[in-house]
Amino acid sequence: MFRLAIFVLVGIIVTSFFMIFSRDVIMSDQQIEKYKESLSHEEILELKRWNTPTIYNGWEQVTKCDSAKDAFNLEPPIDFMPQMGPMVGYAVTVVCEPSNVQHKIDNPDAAMQCYRYIASMLGPKIVVVQDLDKPETYGSHWGEVNSNRHKSLGCVGTITDGSVRDVDEMTNAGFKALARRMCVGHAHAHPVRWGCEVEVFGRKVQPGQLIHADKHGFLAIPFGEEKDLLDAAKFMDSNECQSVIKTARNTTGKSMEEILEGFSQAGKLFASNVKEKFGPKS
Question: Domain range holding 274?
């Protein structure tokens, strides 16, 4: 009887530990397939060479979503390190509530559990943090220490609808941040959930989604639309240069009517090139 009781007790402890450690980290079949089909390091580097509007121009040609409403931020973030250029990575997600000390009491080991989750995910990674205190601001999840720690875990930056502090030190760490504002303190910053769907700046983001972000905002690429993204963005940029931009830059000595006619012809050429490359829009 005593051995049975010990066996049951051990089983309860192990099960409880597993539930705590793995909570909110269960990935869907779709997310697992996404990780299997991740982009190469070279493709990530090439995506980083373009700004986010250029990536959007390519994405709208290959997406099955509504390019007028889906995938991009609906509220304005602030890029606190625009000089660092774009960042590209896979979303790892966290929810925090710095105003609420109860989270530290309920799960004092949450920070280490969250670090372990982030460390286990595919990189490069962008930490997408939903702050439950929004629209208020009591403290920042991000500062010099947390940015350096996450950088060592393969993260290149964060998108948070909360705040950041130690911006110069975060920049020195090479950790980019898009956030709602700055603040002075950290309050009771502590992970509440992780590895779950979050909503930041009006956009829902799933763990594992490819994100492209810069001073213009961010684009969370829907699963399954990553592989064609780079080729589409490069094509659209070249198409602009060889048609509509070329015509607008070549107006010396032309009359206004000739300029406007050039706009019309260039627009038709641009549209024809798009149709030939991607087919007609359904």
Answer: 244-282
